[in-house]
Amino acid sequence: MLVTTAVLALAMGALAIPHQQPFDPDLANATPAYIQETDGVDRYDGHEVWRINWSNLSVTSRTALHSVLESAGDIWKATPDVIDVHLPPRVAAFLPSLVPKDAQATKIVPDLQALVNLSLAHPIPGLAGAYAPRSPLTNPPTDLPDGGWNVSTLGTVFHDAFQPLSAMDRFLDTLVKAFPGTLRTFEIGQSAEGRPLRAYTAHRADGKEDAPEVVIISGQHAREWVGPASAIYFLHALLVNLNDDPHGTAAKVLREFTVTVVPTLNPDGIVYSREHSRMWRKNRQDVGGLMCKGESRFTPSGLVCSESYSGQRPFEAPETTAMANYIVNGTADAPRKRMPRAFIDLHSYGQLFMFPYSFSCNVFPPDAENLMEAGIGVAKAIRMIGGPGYQTGQACQSTLRFAGDAADYTYAVGQVRWSYSAELRDTGTYGFMLPPFLIRPTGIDVVAGLSALALFIYNTEIEP
Ligand SMILES: *[C@@H]1O[C@H](CO)[C@@H](O)[C@H](O)[C@H]1NC(C)=O
Ligand SMILES: *[C@@H]1O[C@H](CO)[C@@H](O)[C@H](O)[C@H]1NC(C)=O
Ligand SMILES: *[C@@H]1O[C@H](CO)[C@@H](O)[C@H](O)[C@H]1NC(C)=O
Ligand SMILES: *[C@@H]1O[C@H](CO)[C@@H](O)[C@H](O)[C@H]1NC(C)=O
Ligand SMILES: *[C@@H]1O[C@H](CO)[C@@H](O)[C@H](O)[C@H]1NC(C)=O
Ligand SMILES: [Zn+2]
Q1: Global pTM?
Q2: At residue 82, what are phi and psi to the nearest 5 degrees?
């Protein structure tokens, strides 16, 4: 293997770790925050998101612009073609002066708060199709008289809204009870704030013994709400479809594979993004940073704690450590005998399904051709069910992630042959603030895509 473990350990460290910048005393004093807070909840009134097409710039100019934007705002996405950046009003006003003349800047979100409100919308019980502008934080409407969800149908109102962590946990507990023998849950570790890191494993009681494992993770980046929502939809759909059609695709997937989903790998961040700061991305670990625990703020000098910081040391975050340990070692109760066969890391946004490596294009995976072919199959399966276009390719070509990602790690260190990193919907209209009516469609993309991937692996490696 060309890639050293140290480099990839660094890559895995890129998941979600707070930044500790050199402390600048001038920033601590006399800097009015650009984000207005109401009751401890960040507001983004008048914040804008801009897309800059920088395809004509040299790599050097791109790197320079990237670092300017990173300190002036909050980078949402960067590809070789475009960079999307969220800017507070005062910075947005002088954006045009920051953009080189060979690049083109377009405003794609004029008022971020409007989208934040939309992503929190909740259906009004009894009024089909009507949405209340904001949801209750802790007590979302349910469809059973005892305050639970009807998990025997994918039509349950659970999937009508982005749910708080507590509701996701309760829904998943209900699933475990409703599908005994098929679904079980266990913990792979604890978050920095002591929340359990929960995993859910589905496999038919009458399925193949020692079936190869497919691991799906999501929720590392707190603001990417559609990740956990569609990971849960995927798990729910497998179980419901298995019940409804004993000869269908889900039944086959759960006979031939063990499917493990870790839907909320960064529970602390997920709670924080819901309750305090919608744009929160990282975990909530305090690494002794003076300003970064809940205090990531735009200041006249820029964002004090960069949201894309990739960590100072590998495996700093307990969430990352726990995930890596599960991939390599399994659990204390069930030490790993065989590496997982596939690993898929669900993020948003961009509609991409990417294979390693992301940290560099100079290292090509030996079985890139197979990874590409399977990726094309995933995109095609999503199109076949009426979904949108997803692009597939090597991650380094579709995103600019300087430090690498979890799929790099599972591929090289974990020897997980089918390792992918996905960016779910959309392509930038709503970005991280997908409205709730797009949860099911995105979940359906994931069901179609990952089922196709499992069948591809089955057909090429298991029963060729
Ligand atoms: C960016 O600009 C290039 C060159 O003008 C063009 O080919 C490309 O389609 C643009 N990309 C986007 C996402 O608009
Ligand atoms: C890139 O350069 C080409 C050729 O000069 C030009 O037509 C195009 O508009 C440029 N694209 C952007 C995004 O500036
Ligand atoms: C968003 O919701 C808040 C609280 O309900 C409200 O005060 C604000 O006006 C809304 N903003 C927009 C742009 O809809
Ligand atoms: C749950 O949903 C199923 C399928 O739509 C329905 O048949 C059943 O009556 C529902 N259960 C309850 C308790 O509402
Ligand atoms: C796997 O377990 C060994 C022995 O306990 C430990 O040293 C190693 O760090 C673990 N690997 C990971 C990736 O956590
Ligand atoms: Zn992400």
Answers
A1: 0.89
A2: -140, 160
Quote the CA–CA distance of 212 and 338 in Å, as a whole number: 8
CA distances from 160 to 323, 378, 458 (A): 29, 25, 33
CA distance 161 to 238: 20
Q: Do the beta carbons of residue 65 and residue 52 sit within 8 Å? A: yes
Residue 240: left (phi > 0), alpha (psi -120 to 50), or beta? alpha
> What atom of ligand 2 comes closest to residue 103's alpha carbon?
14
Residue with tokens 């475990």: 176
Ligand 3 pocket check for 110: Cβ under 6 Å: no
Reduced to 3 states (helix: H, G, I; strand: E, B; else coil), residue 357 is: coil
Q: Are 226 and 159 in contact (CB under 8 A)?
A: no
Contacts of 254 (CB under 8 A, 6+ apart): 182, 202, 203, 204, 207, 238, 242
What tokens were used for 112?
């971020």
Ligand 1 centroid, distance to 103 Cα (angstroms): 10
Give residue-wise pLDDT tens across range 87-132. 999 899 989 999 999 999 999 999 999 999 999 988 777 777 778 7
